[in-house]
Amino acid sequence: MSLLQVIFERRSIRRYRSELIPDEALGNILEAGRLAPSADNAQPWHFVVVIERKIKERLSTGRWNRFIKNSAATIVGCGYKDNEWSTIDVTIALENMVIAAETQGIGSCWIGDFEEEKVKELLNIPENLKVIALVSFGYPAVRPKPPKKKNLETIVHYNKF
Ligand SMILES: Cc1cc2nc3c(=O)[nH]c(=O)nc-3n(C[C@H](O)[C@H](O)[C@H](O)COP(=O)(O)O)c2cc1C
Hints:
Blueprint: H1 3-9, H2 23-34, E1 45-50, H3 53-59, E2 73-80, H4 86-103, E3 107-111, H5 116-123, E4 129-138, H6 152-155
Antiparallel strand pairs: 1-2, 2-4, 3-4
Helix pairs in contact: 2-4
């Protein structure tokens, strides 16, 4: 599959097979995050890779994140509070990871449903970092239908809005 096809056909995956992600594939995912662009090349990020079942279960307590416990790994993206671009930079790095995973046949889902203070305490994340988002990863157990997306004509404006 070409990279364009990978991007065009990606779906959020919330049901996973039980296989673990091999070290090489997980390494590629993390490398894709490490090499992401960041403002001033500040790389204002840390990533916590949660693989332990018990910790995943304790992250899975929200209404919209119950699938975390069945993921092979869930990555928690953190940014420095004192860097004004860290939210954008961490987001770009996490999306790079999503695409790197998809390229390797590994599904993922972004997770905004988390309680920051609980996640920070559970994972020992230092005070000077904020949690930007979580992304769960695993081999897809389903192939979801494409959700409705807006047409380009309704969202793209050339030269002026
Ligand atoms: C910032 C962000 C937060 C999200 N949070 C959640 C979430 O908490 N739980 C969930 O099931 N999906 C979550 N999603 C996934 C979206 O629901 C999904 O991307 C959207 O429905 C479009 O589907 P697609 O990813 O298959 O194109 C989130 C996506 C983004 C970008």
